Amino acid sequence: MSDKKSILPQAFAERMRRLLGSEYESFAASYESGRQYGLRRNPLKGSEEAFDRAVPFPLRKVSWAREGYYYDAESRPGRHVLHEAGAYYIQEPSAMAVAEVLSPNPGERILDLCAAPGGKSTQIAGRMQGQGLLVSNEVMGDRARALSQNVERMGIANCVVCSEKPERLSSFFPAFFDRVLVDAPCSGEGMFRKDEAARAEWSPENVAMCAKRQALILEEAAKMVRPGGVMVYSTCTFSPEENEGTISAFLQNHEDYYIEETVFEGIFSPGRDDWTIAPGAGIEHTLRLWPHLIQGEGHYVARLRRKGQETQLSAAERQQWQDDVHRRGKENDTARTENWKITGDKKLCKLVEAFLREELGIDRAWMARHPGRIVKFGEQIYLAPEEMPSFDGIKALRPGLHLLTEKKNRFEPAHALARTLLEKDTKRRRALTEAEAAAYLRGESLNCGEERGWTALFYEGYALGFGKASGGQMKNHYPKGLRISL
Ligand code: SAM
């Protein structure tokens, strides 16, 4: 049953009225105004200035997210060449706060446990600047594939995408990560303004079921944080059971964790200690994002730290995992090429590097930005992040950056490789007009001159994919499954 005036499920509206008291009227009124639309610039693909020059529609900055912008609904940025090129990711503005609270850094080991379709993962990767290991996990297979596609579209190299249950992952990565994000499945009350399905599916029983599931997921996530590491928990719902309730119950059973303050206190609203089962745990340092108080939808974010002597213990753990890499890895004879900091089968490393340099014109600067380990699965050759201990026993849809496919006596470059290139990275490139870029995305061949061989194709400085020139035609190598008419 819906409350006619406010389109909200009646039991939900009644509960919010009880919780919010005099504030309820302005909360309910926020449902009369339109939702907020946001997108996030991809810092892996170029500078803010280049982005400002390329984007043809008006944008306004989101104050709490470095790369975040509001756009007007009529701009339809999802139907633009720049979207396909990975210049930005469409993401609701409040959702951008979560990765900001996680505050990832280059070189770290980070897990995004509930990652599809990839909003937070792609934001985290932007901050990591290709350095370190990002494991993006999604339990549902079809959603994990969508996640993998988004990781590829955004040109992310150092991300392993896997599809495992949290309890399997926690036995694979005990106390391994510097930061773990749990963007938990929830009852989605914060999305009621933008998502009719969330309103239709809501029920008090579903809220209770979500809270139970969140506790289980958090339990497994906690095992994967190294001592001294950070765990961020977030939802897009309002119910106390799924937010303050989940966190305070977790803290009751985990003396080794505590709530950490964030730089967003005073910008967002405090979590409500009076809505917990066990007050006094510092819940007021968690964050509530209310749609009637900010320009964004509803969210909750808590930042926890695992106790421990950060640097000492992490060094010991790092050593232990390094040892494991050598014990478990199959391809790690530590061969390195002259120019590229990669390890793996020595002969294969050299062949791969020669192909990248000679056939694709990729230079040392790209190689310097992309260290890793060459791994081969069947005919597919990947650049795996060096920190990834092993792939034995884990369902990895994407074991790192897909570089090449080995065909009979030759290599073919992978689409994912093209997406990591900046114009300065390759001599074998061509800048496309908007009409040519649109034709390329539809799968059409392009006219070209005398040139021959693989060519990276760019639009406004953003790599779209490869073409192969011969006889005055640039053959289209944009993957069939991604082709689109804009
Ligand atoms: N972090 C994502 C983003 O920013 O694009 C959104 C994640 S969404 C809120 C929660 C995800 O958790 C869903 O993709 C859902 O499939 C997944 N999920 C559902 N049940 C789960 C479970 N039992 N364990 C782990 N993840 C689960």
- Let me know the largest β-sheet: 10 strands, mixed
Shape: globular
Poorly predicted runs are 328-333
Topology, number of strands: 24
Secondary-structure arrangement, i.e. CATH architecture of the largest domain:
3-Layer(aba) Sandwich
The overall pLDDT, averaged over residues, is 92
User: What small molecules are bound in this structure?
Assistant: S-adenosylmethionine
Helix content: 25-40%
Tally of discrete structural domains? 3
Distance between the termini: 39 Å
Question: What is the CATH C level class of the largest domain, in words?
Answer: Alpha Beta
* Number of helical segments with 4 or more residues: 16
Backbone CA Rg: 24 Å
What descriptors fit this protein?
binds S-adenosylmethionine, 5-stranded mixed sheet, 3 domains, alpha+beta, Rossmann fold, 10-stranded mixed sheet, Archaeosine Trna-guanine Transglycosylase, Chain: A, domain 4, 486 residues, 32% helix, 16 helices
Question: Mind explaining what this structure looks like?
Answer:
This protein has three domains: 94-306, Rossmann fold (3-Layer(aba) Sandwich); 327-419, no CATH class; 428-482, Archaeosine Trna-guanine Transglycosylase, Chain: A, domain 4 (Roll). The chain is globular, with a radius of gyration of 24 Å. β15 (372-377) and β16 (380-384) form a beta hairpin. The strands form four sheets. Strands 5, 6, 7, 8, 9, 10, 11, 12, 13 and 17 form a ten-stranded mixed sheet that branches. The protein has a five-stranded mixed sheet with strand order 14-15-16-18-19. The two termini are 39 Å apart. The chain is built from 16 helices and 24 strands. The protein is α+β, with helices and mostly antiparallel strands and 486 residues long. The chain has helices spanning 10-20, 24-29, 48-54, 81-84, 96-102, 119-128, 141-153, 166-172, 196-201, 204-223, 244-253, 310-328, 346-359, 364-369, 415-419, 434-442; strands spanning 38-41, 59-61, 68-71, 88-90, 109-112, 133-137, 159-162, 177-183, 225-235, 257-259, 269-270, 287-289, 299-306, 342-343, 372-377, 380-384, 396-398, 401-407, 410-413, 429-431, 446-447, 453-459, 462-470, 473-476. 32% of the residues lie in helices and 23% in strands. S-adenosylmethionine binds at residues 114-120, 138-140, 143, 166, 183, 185, 213, 217.
